[in-house]
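Lab notebook, bench 4. We co-purified these components, and the gel suggests they stay together. Before we commit to crystallization screens, I want a quick structural picture of the whole thing.
Request: model the full complex, all chains together.
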Amino acid sequence: MSQDVKSYKCRKIVKGCAGGEAVVSRDAMCFYLTDPETGEVIERNHAIHGKSIANKILVLKSGKGSSVVQVDGFYQLWMKHNLPAAIILVETEPVIVSAAVMVECTMVDRMEADPYEVIEDGDHVEVDAEKGEVRVRKEAA
Amino acid sequence: MFLTDEEKRILDGSEGPGKQKAMEMLYALGLTFDAEKLIPVKRAHVALSGQEGDTYWCELLVSGGATCAITPTTNPYWDTCYLTKFYEVTKEELDLANRTGEAYRKIGAKLTYHCAPGLSTGVPFFGEHIAYSESSATPYVNGALGARSNRESSISALAAAVIGKTPYYGFHIDENRHGHLLIEVEADVKDCYDWGILGHVVGELAGYHNPVLRFKHKVNPGPEDYLYFGAEAATSGAVAMYHMVGVTPEAPTIEAAFGGGKVPAAAAVITDKDLKDREAKLTPATGDINLVMLGCPHYTYDQILEIDRLFAGRKVSHNTAFWILAEAGAVELAERSHLRQKLELLGVRMVGDTCIDEPCWKSFEGHLGLTDSPKCAYYRERRGQPFAIRRLSECVEAAIKGRID
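Here is the predicted assembly.
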């Protein structure tokens, strides 16, 4: 098993430092369409339908949909301790940013490499928003 | 980001923790989107919902001593007095609704409880800088009216109302209002339902970007058409601004829509077949229905009139409920013209101040419903009611039969 760790610069949106298993979504998300009890994505036809985002490092295309239930989606996951440990945004959008600010969910964007190129499901990823750094350890052989 | 001395004092908490929280939100957004400063706004719309996340934020600001510097209009939660006559909710659900009303009264909002402010309850001027949340309201005020709002969340719009300012970035600035991608529309867009389905296809293509639509057939959209289009483009995507060439105020020509710059090749061509395919994809099942739910976004008086015309005196099936969720003013007009009483005799009920996504509707969950709004279907999925999607005329025929084929 390879233990190479690669580091990439990024920009802090919401402070914090977190590590965990990566879940990569090529679709934008509305967090209301997750189950707060499990963190599982319940939206039909969604790229990560059925996967849990709870305490994961979520690589996310962007936010979408409602300007209010996005906030409630974050809030419900927060209450159940099932928010992602951190979110790496590909395209930054105001509603998802304000929801993350309210519940203080660690969030970064502007990664120097395309996150879709360098992060896959199951990789171990550390996000250090203060330092502006994302570290990726490949778990694949 | 430049802050005045007064703004800095608010941010450091000198004017209390409520205003400080609001300013922290605006400042975080300003930093994220490279705003140079805050600018004053005189209108805001808060997409309150009666859901815990949003009510939590309003109560947090209220308990910190904040009140609104400008009175924002608000979205609906639900009419607790009227709907509890029909449906049971738990004490917790009723408490949350009452907490929501109380928090927004205390913070000094204008309790319009209407999700389409751009049509009546809060119509901005062309070019006016505003802070409008409600994902269907933002594209309406930007695209159709030419006012200037970013895609605000309920919580950032409330923060803007408390401070009376919003960060100067995004759609407030001329060059950011220019189109990003060209979409050719060959489909024949006949009514607001078609506009909604078109919006759903466009939202997926555009995501967070600003689409420019060019139509093969001449179009003449009315208020409901723009409303349905934007509501769906902000459901499948995050569209907050759009241009329609030769139609919307900032797109007299295709060159103007793209800011005088180069016009890109079309990113997509949307045909009648694309709209038909989307309708089929969005409908999970057909069969017996227990509910026809209309009014996401809120129905207008003209749409209520259309329902009366389509029923032509026929009655809703005994095992199906038929609800119209409308702006309170439209319900009042229906009352005055005796339309409400006439429709009630057919089994058609209407309610103001109420959203589709509320606990009062839970008795219908677990069975198939029918709506003319993909947005309604999308958000009801979380509460466990699948919806078939059809245009209004088909919804009426299905209601009479009690099933959709």
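Chain A touches chain B through 37 residues (CB under 8 Å). Worth comparing against the SEC data before the next meeting. The longest helix of chain A spans residues 69-79.
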